Amino acid sequence: MGKHKPIYDRSQNLGDFVVVTNAEKVAFTGKKRDQKVYRYHTGWPGGLVTTPLETMYEKKPEEVLRRAIAGMLPKNTLRRERLKLLRIFAGEKHPHSAEDLTPLPDNIVKVASPWLIVKERETVEVQTDNWCVCENACARVRVSVCVRVRSTEKEKRNV
Fold first, then answer.
1. 112-151 residues labelled b (16+ CB within 10 A) or e (exposed)
2. Within-domain flag for 80
3. Phi, psi at residue 7, to the nearest 5°?
4. Domain assignment present for 54
5. Is 27 within the bounds of a domain?
6. Does residue 83 share a domain with residue 27?
7. Please, are residues 16 and 10 in contact by the beta-carbon 8 Å criterion?
8. Whole domain around residue 61: which residue ranges?
9. What is the pTM of this model?
10. Higher-pLDDT residue of 37, 153
11. How high does pLDDT run on average in the chain?
């Protein structure tokens, strides 16, 4: 999806491929292997087709993982395009072995957009004579120190 890129935009497809290997080693929790069923309709009367997870996993283990990932993606027009960039393989061998495929590191720094305006909160302590009135003037509270929070807008620029 490209979330690690500084030009990431959730409404665009940035063209990053995701390669998943060893789909045949997926573990299922609970009784999903026996009870989960995939359904689709052919469009004909009485055309509901049900396939148990066990039979689909034996025939095509990569399809089980593809459907699980498709269920987690947002249901919008980019879903189909994002699934086209997903490459799932049942075993270790795949046609992309000539490329240097390394997993993304955990410490990727996400760079904010230079046009993003970030609201920072600044606290200011005001000493009063044991009374503090809230901003809406709805309550008057007896305190020793009143802390007022004011938000300031500062532009955050990463150069």
1. eeeeeeeeeeeeeeeeeeeebeeeeeeeeeeeeebeeeee
2. yes
3. -95, 15
4. yes
5. yes
6. yes
7. no
8. 18-88
9. 0.61
10. 37
11. 76
